[in-house]
Automatic annotation (TrEMBL):
MF term (GO), any: oligopeptidase activity
Gene responsible for this protein: LOC109395091
Ranges where the Peptidase S9A N-terminal domain occurs: 3-388
Protein name as annotated: Prolyl endopeptidase-like
Domain of life the protein comes from: Eukaryota
InterPro entries from the UniProt entry: Pept_S9A_N, Prolyl_oligopep/macrocyclase
GO CC terms of this entry: cytosol
């Protein structure tokens, strides 16, 4: 039996062998469990009714935000009950939508899923990961966007991987397990990182100007990471092997999420000394913590969930305020608040807009709405979002509710199951 040593304490782990999903012992265990579980579930008298009702409720169209890559727009769409959502392409927002990639046709049972994707900087090449039957193992394939032409390149042994194109479109950073017999839990960065401590994950991304590659090193699920970078301009002969990494942050004392950069001044979202998160600027030429500049301070109550740079000089900030999202526009240079976008009580579940874009899309959902996608043109003097697409569910209209006095009152009613009502409803 396996015994784990946790800080000097010996802890028996009699089921450690189940961590290998491909072993014959694990397969036999799962099969034996299913022989007990499946017949029990199948004899449930309301199983059919439950499935019928859940299918009915889930059968409505589902859209993602549009996002621009190169000269084209893309978006995901599911008609309602498709196993996988389909990627569509348009030449303009008003143009005809065409199927670009449909994972549903890649297998008979519909279990081949899209697991990550990345467009090259010019939007002319498309890398996409596919996994089968819920597996974590991914195969990355490539496509030329014009004509959706499949390319012969294939990357295998990929798991929990980033996909980050160099801005010249000549290569892409990704994570891969080494070719070897047996199994390994050591994740290494293909071509650019020689070895990695066990359980560390190394997602990398390119800076907005394409000059720097950033390496976010994580251990486990805690919101902390190390942050290394490499100046690709120092690679005079191109990327030929192990990169020259600069260890900007080499401890697990905070989380640092890259937002954007102006030259050597980088903007990060961090929880370092700020549990609700804030925005800071770090100059790579003078990176001592005492020299960090606060761009947007931590809010005393609201949690900063994510940040995006758009139209070169704007920042979009999404906060969690009293269990609902708020969306703000700030100035990149000063951090000043420019606008708060109008939102009802609900959540932002989708966003698109990059530094080079002049428009943003964001998707809102709530108890009353399965999805409203807004579009805002940031080149206009009046920054007023418009409803780009609104999803409706057949048979549900919150405005249909009437009181006994025949006045319409859109509302949401939530109650504890133990609540006893002693008066009639309106």
């Amino acid at each position: 039996m396996t015994v784990q040593d946790y800080h000097g304490h010996k802890i028996p782990d009699p089921y450690a062998w189940l961590e290998d999903p491909d072993s014959e012992q694990t397969k036999a265990f799962v099969e034996a469990q299913n022989k007990i579980t499946v017949p029990f579930l199948e004899q449930c008298p309301i199983r059919g009714l439950y499935k019928e009702r859940m299918t009915e409720l889930y059968d409505y169209p589902k859209y993602s935000c549009h996002f621009k890559k190169g000269k084209r727009y893309f978006y995901f769409y599911n008609t309602g009950l498709q196993n996988q959502r389909v990627l569509y392409v348009q030449d303009s927002l008003e143009g005809e939508a065409r199927v670009f990639l449909d994972p549903n046709i890649l297998s008979d049972d519909g279990t081949v899923a899209l697991r990550g994707y990345a467009f090259s900087e010019d939007g002319e090449y498309f890398a996409y990961g596919l996994s089968a039957s819920g597996s974590d193992w991914v195969t990355i394939k490539f496509m030329k966007v014009d004509g959706a032409k499949e390319l012969p390149d294939v990357l295998e042994r990929v798991k929990f991987s980033c996909m980050a194109w160099t801005h010249d479109g000549k290569g892409m950073f990704y994570n891969s397990y080494p070719q070897q017999d047996g199994k390994s839990d050591v994740l290494s960065q293909k071509n650019i990182f020689s070895s990695a401590p066990a359980l560390f994950l190394f997602p990398s991304q390119l800076s907005d100007d394409g000059r720097y590659v950033l390496l976010s090193i994580r251990e486990g699920c805690d919101p902390v990471n190390r942050l290394w970078y490499c100046d690709l301009q120092q690679e005079s002969n191109g990327i030929t092997g192990i990169l020259k990494w600069v260890k900007l942050i080499d401890n697990f004392e905070g989380e640092y999420d890259y937002v954007t950069n102006e030259g050597t001044v980088f903007t990060f979202k961090t929880n370092r000394h700020s549990p609700n998160y804030r925005l800071i600027n770090i100059d790579f030429t003078d990176p001592e913590e005492s020299k960090w500049k606060v761009l947007v301070p931590e809010h005393e109550k609201d949690v900063l969930e994510w940040v995006a740079c758009v139209r070169s000089n704007f920042l979009v900030l999404c906060y969690l305020h009293d269990v609902k999202n708020t969306l703000q526009l700030h100035d990149l240079a000063t951090g000043a608040l420019l606008k708060t976008f109008p939102l009802e009580v609900g959540s932002i579940v989708g966003y698109s807009g990059q530094k080079k874009d002049t428009e943003i899309f964001y998707q809102f959902t709530s108890f009353l709405s399965p999805g409203i996608i807004y579009h805002c043109d940031l080149t206009k003097e009046e920054l007023e979002p418009r409803v780009f697409r609104e999803v409706t569910v057949k048979g549900i209209d919150a405005s249909d509710y009437q009181t006994v006095q025949s006045a319409n009152w859109p509302l949401v009613l939530l109650e504890n199951i133990r609540t006893h009502l002693f008066t009639e409803c309106l």
